[in-house]
Design goal:
Four copies of one chain form a homotetramer. Chain A has 13 helices and ten strands. Chain A is α/β, with parallel strands linked by helices.
Amino acid sequence: MDFASDNSGGASRKILEALVTANAGSTPGYGADDYSLAASRKLAEVFEHDCSVFLVSTGTAANALALSTLTPPWGAVFCHEDAHINDDECGAPEFFTAGAKLVSLKGAQGKISLAALEDAVERFPPGLVKQVQPASLSLSQATECGTLYSLDELQNLTAIARHAGLGVHMDGARFANAIESLNCTPAQMSWKAGVDVLSLGATKDGALACEAVIVFDPARAAELPFRRKRAGHTLSKGRFLGAQMSAWLDDDHWRELARHANSMAARLAMGLTEIPGVRMPWPRQVNEVFTVLPGDIDRALRAAGARYYDWGARGLTAMQAPGADEVFVRLVTSFATTQDDVGQFLKVARSAA
Amino acid sequence: MDFASDNSGGASRKILEALVTANAGSTPGYGADDYSLAASRKLAEVFEHDCSVFLVSTGTAANALALSTLTPPWGAVFCHEDAHINDDECGAPEFFTAGAKLVSLKGAQGKISLAALEDAVERFPPGLVKQVQPASLSLSQATECGTLYSLDELQNLTAIARHAGLGVHMDGARFANAIESLNCTPAQMSWKAGVDVLSLGATKDGALACEAVIVFDPARAAELPFRRKRAGHTLSKGRFLGAQMSAWLDDDHWRELARHANSMAARLAMGLTEIPGVRMPWPRQVNEVFTVLPGDIDRALRAAGARYYDWGARGLTAMQAPGADEVFVRLVTSFATTQDDVGQFLKVARSAA
Amino acid sequence: MDFASDNSGGASRKILEALVTANAGSTPGYGADDYSLAASRKLAEVFEHDCSVFLVSTGTAANALALSTLTPPWGAVFCHEDAHINDDECGAPEFFTAGAKLVSLKGAQGKISLAALEDAVERFPPGLVKQVQPASLSLSQATECGTLYSLDELQNLTAIARHAGLGVHMDGARFANAIESLNCTPAQMSWKAGVDVLSLGATKDGALACEAVIVFDPARAAELPFRRKRAGHTLSKGRFLGAQMSAWLDDDHWRELARHANSMAARLAMGLTEIPGVRMPWPRQVNEVFTVLPGDIDRALRAAGARYYDWGARGLTAMQAPGADEVFVRLVTSFATTQDDVGQFLKVARSAA
Amino acid sequence: MDFASDNSGGASRKILEALVTANAGSTPGYGADDYSLAASRKLAEVFEHDCSVFLVSTGTAANALALSTLTPPWGAVFCHEDAHINDDECGAPEFFTAGAKLVSLKGAQGKISLAALEDAVERFPPGLVKQVQPASLSLSQATECGTLYSLDELQNLTAIARHAGLGVHMDGARFANAIESLNCTPAQMSWKAGVDVLSLGATKDGALACEAVIVFDPARAAELPFRRKRAGHTLSKGRFLGAQMSAWLDDDHWRELARHANSMAARLAMGLTEIPGVRMPWPRQVNEVFTVLPGDIDRALRAAGARYYDWGARGLTAMQAPGADEVFVRLVTSFATTQDDVGQFLKVARSAA
């Protein structure tokens, strides 16, 4: 009953097997191997667009590298105040950009509101030397609240960005879960929606450690080989990243894994909704369930060995905030979550209600 | 016949199996898992010393993180002019230290000479504000020439460093090959020899992608969790690094792999020495053979599909430099090199002589 | 009628004369001259405390250097959202700290509220690796709204900071105006109030270009000679900074200049208050008057050649925001402002009312 | 008898008077004043070329800002091993470029040799990801040895640079002395000689603290307003920089001051040459005399109160190195040096011979 993170599980069997297969023989290093080249090719196909691909081993590296291609040291990155880049990466974007400023924007349920972005663009006019210069917009899809921008919402935000001359980054740590939920193509949720550079995460969706920085306009990628190398993110035995990404994409394996994680979360959410006293501040959309639990249920679950994070009151309005004997928690499912895990969790919760 | 790099091969079977074993079940993320904790414990045992351990996935990251703990932005790192940190990491040390200066020192066969270090220490007196401040000494063991400092040579260099208030870093990308060749303990070649922070490389010696930053005085390691995180080098599924390092250390697997690589290089060197026209500018010591080949032999080997790097004239004196129809090359063996690879290589070379 | 900035005027006659006097003869460079040494000595006397002093030529340099001594690259600086360091220095703190994060705090009239600081301290627990680490608190005295923290308010804020292990910086660009208004000693408003490092501004108060970074615990100043040098802020003919600072301090010249600027602002504020339709969102405290003017008055003043900045709605509550034909403006006086300037301004305003 | 530095003297009377004149009245801040605008205009005239001008208060700032416009964080700056940027600025270029690498080149008498530059260009092929990327060439005119590149030598070096795609920076801390000595126009020694960005120093030549970054292709200057601001080098009372630069240029004042300094050095060199036992390793060209003095003479001069730096053996060949009772020294003259200073110095030296 580990619902702490989609990083709690290991890797999918197929991906692990691909690693073993890729182990044989001798290859060139630093990403010039056939596995890495194949991964790039497959990503171009899946995204229906020419692109430059840079594989790395963490999402933080992918995000920070992506932002550094869009933002000069004196630039502003507009992002949601709860964004992973703002709150969970120990200043990696500031490090990789050599000192850019992340400007926190507000918006309900983890999503930047149009008004907040419009206001920010107005507050940072280009050319006003005393201020940092507007440079990029970073959108998380899915968000830190497990919610999704609709394709229309993405278009509206990126239209403002484009008009203001901002580059657009998408933190796609849960990109696969998002397209499964929105039932759209990878292209629709990325470059067709105005995204310039995507951090595509495989790790949370069944890989060991593999993320791709995807630059849809290869002209913008000229600096990235050097940026990646000097950040220590160019693996010498690059085949092991290439093999993960290739296996992840093959036969829609990535979508299958995400679909499973989403469905486990759906089942969990549905079960919880039926329990008296349990509240959902917003509907589940991907593989994360945010819910306010009565203290009794929380204690029973903890006692039974369930693992998940207390989420404080992040993302909640004042009216939604947990009451005296309530706790707001985040439950995350993954490719490795089983129906049994969910069933057992719900059973304990129901008994304690 | 791939002698291009010790990164050309995959991973050892044992390490791959350990990865598969570690895949099962649910673990905490970010290095708090049992595999990573075990790796730290084993390193402390192997090195016979308390230490703080930080696992990362590349040697460049390990080196740059290590140097950043020893060197302020206005500091000087003394290193050999051909050191990997100076010549092959695209400025990673400068990036991680926020702008320190690498001061190139000379010395035959890739080894910093005592005189060069003494001179550097004199040229950079502490407190002279107009200059960068002397901060650290970085030693590569084995060096970029595949040579080794003797334990006495290490002691002499680190004594100067200590006297000058410098922290000492060792780039141990081929540490295992070095202790096998010197027939000494890990402790003797590290903290007992005056090393403060060691980059211990497993990747070149049979791992997929795993290096350890080992800080022998844990008080000096306080910044490293943050430095590693913001560099994007804290893997979320940390178990996969821990499992590699653990399996690498278990049952002296790391030494066995290095011994094999060294012995393949020894066999290669011995065979080459017997071929007329082939010259060795210095004796082989680890898993790298540097040799001047007559053009005929080089062409025959390339034609037969052998892979290795042309080394220009790096490390050679004017008298040793390759002549009109000669080429200076580097041949690297690894755990994956077979006696057949070596035999076939020598056979082609002999025929062409 | 230039009320745009306290930088609009030149330098005081006494300071200019001191520069001419200091010009004679030959001196050592880089701050080892007698004028600079005297300035340090005088600052120690004026502040009744041992201190390390670093003279520079801009307030941005002073602030950024000060913050860099208190904040590691992965640190958080807590500051008011409208602070000069956050909004008007083009990312200088991020540059000098190598990427620290400025965390914006709220509070009425430019002053950080206790609750906001307490909340921030709670949101950034030390040791939580995924977040930047709490490192420093920066207080502006006077604030960007021309308001002042009382000595008690300073004590309360710095007590929280100290308890949380934060270093305390004060941006004292208008420090002289502040002590004149609070009628306290420099010591009371700095180290006695919990300030570790002070940026003391002379430029806005009658110097040409001179600011001091004052570190009250000299042990904390060890890095500053190097930080200042590599930022290009160590003047070779350092005597010219020393001479400015010395003359500014001599015979309470600095306080006299500030007193004049404050009294001109007081006169301006008093006059404006008596004009129908003019509103003051908060009382004037130093040499800045923030006021909502009816459109007619604003237009008449502009037409008469008055210079001042439109302040948008910064610092105002929704209820205070300027109405349809109103404008919120900032009026700044300085040592160079004359009674005539003020009289003429008020006359035009009255006529237009 | 202060021959320690051209920073030992104060400022020229004309420049000081210009400062007093500029003090009157009210002006816009941050370089938008008439004095600064006039300075830019005059520089364009003097250099016979459109240019973007950025005034700052130190040579270190000018150099570091200039290099940061030409060199990415992963770039290499080729410079002489004794260049001021390499040896005397405490890592400022590394700081402003966010971590670029200064690659030291050799050459007699402080001048980069053609062969050394050709070799460097060959060692750093563009696109080789493991190395820093060739980005810029920095030439000091005059050099740290007080020597000059001829116009032909400049052309030959910048031709290699241009062919290799390098931007060219000139450190012109003693630019005025150089053009006086070469008897050429400012244009001939800058953009006509292939220089892209010039640090033009007025401080050593009679100003208080004033240097200009001159970018000859304004398109390359787009980032500089932000870089200067965030480095704290945009003076709020910018008129004081503008007034210095304007007065320095007016009526060829700058050339007159340099001519005087050069002629004092010429007289000094001539006098020293005639003293038995005194050696000149290379001919004087600007306002610096490098000479090997017998110990007796050195001691007599020190005893008489003369100030100058012991230069070790920097720039000397082994054969030129000072003998047992000799010392190699640098003597610098400036606009403030008098014939009496020189006469008295020579008299003491002659007596001691």
